[in-house]
Amino acid sequence: xxxxxxxxxxxxxxxxxxxxxxxxxxxxxxxxxxxxxxxxxxxxxxxxxxxxxxxxxxxxxxxxxxxxxxxxxxxxxxxxxxxxxxxxxxxxxxxxxxxxxxxxxxxxxxxxxxxxxxxxxxxxxxxxxxxxxxxxxxxxxxxxxxxxxxxxxxxxxxxxxxxxxxxxxxxxx
Amino acid sequence: xxxxxxxxxxxxxxxxxxxxxxxxxxxxxxxxxxxxxxxxxxxxxxxxxxxxxxxxxxxxxxxxxxxxxxxxxxxxxxxxxxxxxxxxxxxxxxxxxxxxxxxxxxxxxxxxxxxxxxxxxxxxxxxxxxxxxxxxxxxxxxxxxxxxxxxxxxxxxxxxxxxxxxxxxxxxx
Amino acid sequence: xxxxxxxxxxxxxxxxxxxxxxxxxxxxxxxxxxxxxxxxxxxxxxxxxxxxxxxxxxxxxxxxxxxxxxxxxxxxxxxxxxxxxxxxxxxxxxxxxxxxxxxxxxxxxxxxxxxxxxxxxxxxxxxxxxxxxxxxxxxxxxxxxxxxxxxxxxxxxxxxxxxxxxxxxxxxx
Lengths: 173, 173, 173
Description:
The first copy, chain A, has 173 residues and is of the alpha/beta class.
């Protein structure tokens, strides 16, 4: 426990082990561990994914569901003695866009909360820009929004890790 | 030549130079060099790809075709003095799924063989999770299977290398 | 300013911050700074992207448009005291293929110009092979062309950097 906040961004592809890496970072933590889940169990496939993720996590996590209101959930969860994990930024941005809210404003609000961070905050986010240009315009727009958000979050965080095949590679910090 | 097995996972995107990197690792090898090919020349495009790959390889390789039965092919090919290259895990997993076999069981069997590894075993595998979420459910399922397999293989290997634009980046080992 | 040319390849995904990184490399440069743009404002979306990129660049850049004739544009722009930025190779290759020219010959000509490089030449290029295999054959072919080009350019350059979330990772140099 320290007075200096620690903001960590964990980037990676689908099924890269990024969530597991983020959770493992909290293994020795003595204070409260809070998991902010942004996925909604909208269909069976997603419900199965969420259940699998929950089973993967060890005990000792308090789960907070925040498909769209991540900013206030994070503000409420942060504390000098807390380890807060947001899983994940990309799904939240997708929910924000589906609700036809402005993703730029949403990211700006998230950056404001990070400025006031206390304790440890770990943000998990997907890298989605390394494939071929998507056919449909919405996917291209989402790719831009997610990529730009990752750049801004990386600039705001104290540490940035890229995870591939479960193995971390430090990009910053 | 040594009694200590060496298991190497070479990850990378399409046309990243991962196969060439894997083959180059065997350049100075004095014992038998065995190349286990998992691609099937199902259509013209694939036949051309296979022929190009074969032409890229230098002489001195024994080629073994194992589109689906990778596990026994690898078991038979491994030897204390052998350099065995599997190219690639991702295509094998795709063949397994097309044949409606269970990919989890297939990967578990591959991990068992790796436990008994002798000599040098190099596995080439694609990273496929860094693009936008695919539209179709089968592609999403494949992405999960391939990503999970990469994590498990990375944990089981002594060395893991990520190749981009022909340049290796060591993730482990 | 030096007599030794410096060729830099900046790889990254969409909205990874690769262009910004490339531009920042020229920040302290005293001689001419030349920006070779390969994108064409064919539709509104692309026009908006180009305008945003131009606004992102600081002052002090001379802009040269070269959607297809990159090779002569680069040859003309290079000079012992110049910092030349090509943004980007991938879009140029896409233009070459759309014009039904031979991408292999085009890349070979680009490699020839790099051999004669003077001053600093920075090439920005997309990594497009880390997603799921694309459905359509043209996208698969493009992925092969772009991946092969990246390998050849990486071999020809003195420095290769991979950018993710705005953060550079040195692969070579």
